[in-house]
């Protein structure tokens, strides 16, 4: 994989991870909610007007465009598993930004993911 291809794949993964984090920040601002007939419109409007959610959706749009460019250069059997790096990015960022727990079990899982991506990238 050449540097441009790697950049496209990693940029797509990073943008996707950022989208998830922004969506979480937006839902945190709204708080816990249940969709019911009575509140689907007010909650929907509240969610749709949160800047982090709008930013997260924009990240998804850009990530799809970058991902398509990456897929034009890299075999899908290599590119798609690279998306698992998003799990690593999100776990670490959620710990840092939202105070989520990084237990030993989660850290072992992250290590397994990293080993898998390393083996895949070397193939």
TrEMBL record:
One Pfam family here: Multi_Drug_Res
Domain of life assignment: Bacteria
Keyword line: Cell membrane, Membrane, Signal, Transmembrane, Transmembrane helix
Chain coiled-coil ranges: none
Signal sequence region: 1-19
Main location per the UniProt record: membrane
GO molecular function, one term: transmembrane transporter activity
Localization in the cell: Cell membrane
Membrane-spanning ranges: 51-71, 78-98, 104-121
Topological category with respect to the lipid bilayer: Multi-pass membrane protein
One GO CC term on file: plasma membrane
Family: Belongs to the drug/metabolite transporter (DMT) superfamily. Small multidrug resistance (SMR) (TC 2.A.7.1) family.
Name of this chain's protein: 4-amino-4-deoxy-L-arabinose-phosphoundecaprenol flippase subunit ArnF
Higher taxonomy: Bacteria, Pseudomonadati, Pseudomonadota, Betaproteobacteria, Burkholderiales
